[in-house]
Design a protein that fits this description.
Rossmann fold, SIR2/SIRT2 'Small Domain', binds ligand BJW, NAD+ binding, 2 domains, Sirtuin_cat_small_dom_sf, Ssirtuin_cat_dom, three-stranded antiparallel beta sheet, six-stranded parallel beta sheet
Length: about 220
């Protein structure tokens, strides 16, 4: 029984019509990271940030899982052992594609978080600044998203699984954001076979044993089958 850890990034959802961050016309070309993806940006202009995530929630809700999301769900169902998908994506295309053993390390668009008491609840399609927490009543709702400078979710479970995995694959992620970009080194230390699946080599591409280059709907399907 072997353990497979799969890290996914924006590239796996690109063919579902969801923009990546660092492409020439991607999200970071249209918005300043400091304004929309940091706690300081939220403190300064919460409406700008809430509107940014409302728009992305609408885009994600209209998108459909693609062949790559479905292939990973198939792998989980058929593999004799554990398959853990760790996604940096905040869309829900992995779960709608059928993945069950899944960690959203950078949070989720369909979740709201109370900045006062840490309670979580399903986000409405359109959040508003000053929405009340259903648990403590504070007007402290925020998107349940991990911004720069914040601690990604479930790191203990991720590192524990990386430390005993046999295969590690990174799909559609540019390797620019830590701690996710450090997972390949962690898996290699554990003796795992590592493979990068992407349109092009990432910033940490040289650390992988092998690469499969091309659009995720083709490369992931071929890797799984
Ligand atoms: C395709 C394709 C197709 C396209 N098929 N492929 C160490 C060194 C230096 C800095 C740091 C460090 N440790 C921490 C930092 C600070 C910071 C950081 O990393 N900064 C860097 C910019 C240098 N990190 C943090 O602040 C993190 N927190 C933290 O570290 O806490 C302390 C800690 C330390 C140690 C252990 C544990 C904790 C938090 C990071 C939060 C990231 N947040 C964002 C935004 C919020 C979510 C959202 O709004 O959606 O998350 S930033 C953004 O980047 C988003 C993404 O999840 C993330 C990664 O982007 P991704 O997915 O890789 O997308 P792209 O666009 O970059 O790449 C797409 C790829 O797909 C490309 O390669 C394409 O080629 C490919 N592609 N089409 C296949 N069809």
């Amino acid at each position: 029984m072997s353990t497979i850890v799969i890290l996914t990034g924006a590239g796996i959802s690109a063919e579902s019509g969801i923009e990546t961050f660092r492409a020439e016309t991607g999200l970071w070309a249209q918005h300043r990271v400091e304004d929309v993806a940091t706690p300081e940006g939220f403190a300064k202009d919460p409406k700008l940030v809430v509107d940014f995530y409302n728009a992305r929630r609408a885009t994600a809700a209209a998108a459909q899982p693609n062949a790559a999301h479905r292939a990973l769900a198939r792998l989980e169902a058929e593999h004799d052992g554990e398959v853990l998908v760790v996604t940096q994506n905040v869309d829900d295309l992995h779960e709608r594609g059928g993945s069950q053993n899944l960690i959203h390390m950078h949070g989720a668009l369909n979740s709201a978080l109370c900045a006062a008491c840490d309670h979580r609840w399903p986000a409405p399609m359109t959040m508003a600044v000053g929405d009340a927490c259903p648990s403590c009543g504070a007007a402290a709702a925020r998107p349940d998203i991990v911004w720069f400078g914040e601690m990604p979710y479930q790191m203990d479970r991720i590192f524990e699984t990386l430390g005993r995995c046999d295969v590690f694959a990174a799909i559609g992620t540019s390797g620019n954001v830590y701690p996710a970009a450090g997972f390949v080194a962690e898996a290699a230390r554990a003796g795992a076979e590592t493979v990068e699946i992407n349109l092009e080599r990432s910033a940490v591409g040289s650390q992988f044993d092998s690469a499969r280059l091309g659009p995720a709907t083709q490369t992931v399907t071929a890797w799984v089958d």
